[in-house]
Known about the structure:
GO terms for molecular function: riboflavin synthase activity. Homotrimer. Pathway: Cofactor biosynthesis; riboflavin biosynthesis; riboflavin from 2-hydroxy-3-oxobutyl phosphate and 5-amino-6-(D-ribitylamino)uracil: step 2/2. With 197 residues, the chain is mainly β. It has two domains: 8-84, Beta Barrel (Elongation Factor Tu (Ef-tu), domain 3), CATH 2.40.30; 103-196, Elongation Factor Tu (Ef-tu), domain 3. The chain is 13% helix and 40% strand. The two termini are 31 Å apart. The relative contact order is 0.19. The mean pLDDT is 94.
Amino acid sequence: MFTGIVETLGTIARIEKQGSNVDFWVNTTITNELKIDQSVAHNGVCLTVVAIDGDTYKVTAVAETLEKTNLGQWQGGRKVNIERSLRVGDRLDGHFVQGHVDATATCVEKQTLDGSWLFRFRFPKEFASLIIEKGSVCINGTSLTVFNVGKDEFTVTIIPYTYDHTNFHELEEGHLVNIEFDVLGKYLLRQQQLQSA
Length: 197
């Protein structure tokens, strides 16, 4: 379980293919604090640390993860948002995030405002019932509040701190991002579907 509050940026140091799996070696400032078998969110995708070598660590993405996320587009040198799992007793500054990406969305607008940045994203319409005005969404592992919600689009505003300390400063129109919708909304929708079935 995560909160969507990005802890640090990591850099993809190298990529190795193992059959249908892909191993990513990630360099971060917190590598020395990690341990093997620990869950870490990478752009909102929960992956397990399987090896540590100096200031880099290795995680493995299976075929399903590569198909449902933007990990298949990662290349060496790419910056990714990193968050370690929530500890019991920690503050929940964002919202409950599982690290299970629902879909990818496309950035269709990036606008520089006076002191902040506006981003508009287009997502698959079948997820429209999982997002509400002023609700929470996780974009590349970052917990954000949405507005101007439509059937297949929504908007977020990024403050300078978030812009500088996540990979939002590298995000441009046309880029694909990982989206996880609010888990509470998923449970409510499932309950409604079962009651009406």
